[in-house]
Structure formats: C-alpha cells, structure tokens
Amino acid sequence: MEPRLFAGPPAGSGPEPLADHRARLGSRPSGAAAAATVPTLEASGLLGRGGAGFPVGRKWRSVAGQAGGRPVVLVNAAEGEPLSSKDRTLLRLRPHLVLDGALLAADAVGADRIALYIGTAQRDAQASIRRALAERRDLNVAIDLHAAPDTYVAGEESAAVHFVNEADARPTVTPPRPYERGVGGRPTLVQNVESLAHAALIGRFGDGWFRELGRDVTPGSALVTISGAARDGVREIEIGTTIGELAEQAGAGTTARDRQAVLLGGYFGGWLSTERGWDVPLDPIALRAAGSAFGAGVVAFLGNDRCGVRATSRIMDYMAGQSAAQCGPCVFGLRAIADATARLATGRPERDDLERIQRWSQQLAGRGACRHPDGAVGQLLSSLRVFGSEWEVHQRRRPCTRERVAAITPARNREQVA
Amino acid sequence: MTATFRPRPTARPDRPAGPGPARTELVVDRIACDGFGMCAELLPELIELDDWGYPIVAAGGVPDQLLDHARRAVAVCPVLALRLARIPAAPVERGNAGWHGNRPSSVRG
Fold first, then answer.
1. Which domain covers residue B83, as residue numbers?
2. How far apart are CA B2 and CA A358, in angstroms?
3. Number of H helices, E strands in chain A
4. pLDDT by residue (tens digit) across A144-199?
C-alpha cells in the first residue's frame, strides 16, 4: 500500500516544511469548498481515530448544526494510551497536514477558535506544531496551545474540554456532550489528530479516493503502533489488513505459533489469541465481532515466553492508578480488581479472587461518568477468555506455565515509522 | 479451557442503545454519588449495592408500579445524585459509546 498520511519525505527527514507540503499537496479547500467537505466526509466513511470510532462527517454536521455560539475545534493529541505513539509521530512529521485538517474543520463548522491539546511529554510534537504555526500565514482563526496532562483519562473528550476551560483534565458528567456545549460553553468539535489529517486529504481528493483503500468493511488507511515485534513502531496500514499479515511485516512471526496473543486497541482494548486472531482483519467491525477493539490502533504482540496473567495485572494496576478518582465504582472497584489480579499474578491469591474479579468486572461497566472503568474491565474480561486456563493455574497456586515475564512493553523505538 | 463471561446488562440511560418504547430511567450522577445507599433501601426492586455500597441500577427502566418508590428514592438522596429521566422512544444515534470505543457489547464472550 502506498502511504497516504506518511506520503512525502521519509521519516528521517523530520517535520515536513510548509513549502514542501504545499508543493506536494496544494492548498486545502477553503470557503464554500470547505463547507462542502461535510457531505464528502460523510460519504467517505471516515471513522474517528482517537479510539471511539465515531463517524467524522456526522460529528462535523452535528457541531455545525448546533445553536449556542460559534463552534470551537479542539484538536486532541493527548494520546495518554501507553502503547500508542502514532498521534505524536504524525504531529512531529506532518504538522501541516494536521493543521490543514484543523483549519478545514474550523471553516466547515464555522469555528473561530482552534484549541490544540497535546500531551505534555510529547515535546517533539509540540515543537513541530509550534514551528509549523510560525510558518503559516493563512490562520484566519484564533489558535491556542494546551499541554495535556500525561494521564490516561486526559484524552477523554469531556476531560479535554474541562482542561481547556478550567485546567482540570478530569471527565465531566454528560450530557451535555462537548458537541452541544464544550469549550467556553460553545459547541465543540473534539477530533483526534489522525482523523483531521485524513479529513485534510479527503477534502482534496474526495470520498471515492479515500474508499479505494479498505479490504474489509471500513474504508481507508490507519496508523497503528506496533510493539512486541522485531520492528516496533508506527505504521500506516490499509484497514482490513489481517493481524497475521501485519505480524509478518513487522517481524512478529510468520505463523500463529510465533506469538501467543495480541492486545488490540490498547489498555482499553481486548486480547485475542493469535490462534484465533491471525486471520482477523484489522477493522473496527471485525475486531468488535471477535471480542476486541480497533481503538486507537494499538497492536501489541505477546511472546510465547510471557505470562498473560502478569501482563494483564500490570495493565489493571496502571488503569486503577489512572482513575480520575471521581466515581466510587471506579475508585474502589478498579482498585479491588487490580489488587486481586496482582495477587493472582504473583501466586498469592485469596480463595475466591478469580471469581471475584469476574463478578466485579461485570458489575463495573457503565457505572462511571466516563468509560475508563468500562475500558479497563473490557480488557480484563478479554484476558480471562484468552488466558482462561492460565488464570486457573494461578488461582490454584500452581507454578506459572510461562516464564514470569511481566511486561507487555511499549514499542521500542516507539516513534519510529516502520 | 476458556471460560465465557457474559456481563450483566447495566442501565446506561444517558446512552440509549437503540429503538424502543419511551420509558423512565433512574439516572445516577456517578461523580456526585457518595454511596450513602438510601436509594437501595427504598427501591431494592431496582437498585442493589456493590461491595463498596455504590448503586447498581437494573436495566430496562422503571415500571409504572414502581414510579412512586423511585420518586421517593430520588428525594431522599443526601447528595442529589439520583434523578428520573424520560427516555424518548426514538433511537438516539451514537457512534461507539465512550472514548476508546470499548462499549460493553465489545466485552461479550
């Protein structure tokens, strides 16, 4: 597949300067052509790439149609997911493509303000976007930069709005949702940077062009962050590429026997055994049907020498620690689940720990202001399915059948474009 | 051996799942709720408490014969975390629920 977002100069040459970007892609649609982008985006089938997968065109239309003041565009690059680095990489290498998308969105929905919300730790991405802004002479809207706290929930859309409004990156009770009332009380389009970059290309080349890629149900290309492979890093793939094909490309094996499992979507996503998942397309619809999630494009392979129970335990401990500590079920439930999971992982379970984490997990979904607990227990429940016998071994205090290597670790060379 | 776990459906009144008749739902403000538990005492038919005292509301809405009890449960909440909401009959279109796309349907076995 020819890359789309990463077309142009190789990753090694760093951020693409404005002149090169313009020479390669021409100008973005503006004025009436920008407004006409909304139906084009709807026809393109572009789904949001921040993790929730909401149709982008429909979101733009909802914001454009709101009463309640001039809309605001909130560019979301918080990227709190530990296994993901595609957003910061895209911002670093193609800042002008992202800015084109944001400016196009602002024109299309009638916004007069763009808030850029970029993770505090993502210094290269921040520097790249600052340089890009300094190069621009076509900024017809106010643009402000916000350093998102490096927490997991900071990227949740109501938390992002909350931070821009009040410097508090905790989710708020919804409704109203940001598209109704967001930044400054105005209708707010919260959109992930990759979604905006795709929109910038669809605005130029049309929905038919976008749909030329996509081998399963969902059209287009997508960025993924791969870990646990020989060639970790960020890749642009055609949606519908199978997990096995990606494993081969990235050096994570040539058959399902080379890795035991894969975590898709990130700490919020779901595990699949490679045996079951090898031929599953990386497509949000197919992955959901398989009990997993495309999420923000995380593909983390788990080696045969790793212990899935320990890997899950590490994630649950992290997720419990990342609760915004606002809602009782999340504060107490996630912590209790993480503690029981840790006891199981380290061979010191109480008698009913496995039964308890199943019960608690099932009770937790839907009982927070945001979906942090839902995502965490979704991942755990998928682990219980995929590593079921391992969990039972741990509950019976038998020696772990794997080496007790705990980690599913973030990609080495995580910002490398593979 | 791989067990299959099927989560019990929980009410998600702020995110209607699809078409259905208009109904009344009990909605908990999860940030305001401090787990006093008085709602569960007054309305055990629809509300149970988890191991930490926080309410679990049964899915499916409030049947007419329990509406008075539900109103009382709403009235006694010391932190005003409970309310009754009328959910319209029309389906409310949503993409994936929540951020990062993992709605409860994706955790089905």
1. 19-87
2. 13
3. 18, 9
4. 999 999 999 999 999 999 999 999 999 998 889 999 999 999 999 999 999 999 99
Lowest mean pLDDT segment, chosen from A127-136, A316-325, B90-99:
B90-99
CATH number at residue B27: 3.30.70.20
Phi, psi of A230 (to 5 degrees): -70, -35
- What tens digit of pLDDT does each residue of A340-372 get? 999 999 889 999 999 999 999 999 989 999 889
Which ipTM did the prediction report? 0.81
A152: contact with B, CB 8 A cutoff: no
How many structural domains is chain B composed of?
Answer: 1
pTM summary value = 0.87
Q: Nearest CA of chain B to the CA of A308: how many Å?
A: 13
Of A293, A360, A363, the CB nearest to B102: A293
Asked if the structure places residue B103 within a domain, the reply is no
Q: Which of A45, A113, A39 is nearest to A75 (CA)?
A: A113
Residue B109 in any domain: the answer is no
Strand B47-49 and strand B55-57: the pairing is antiparallel
Residue B47 lies in a domain: yes
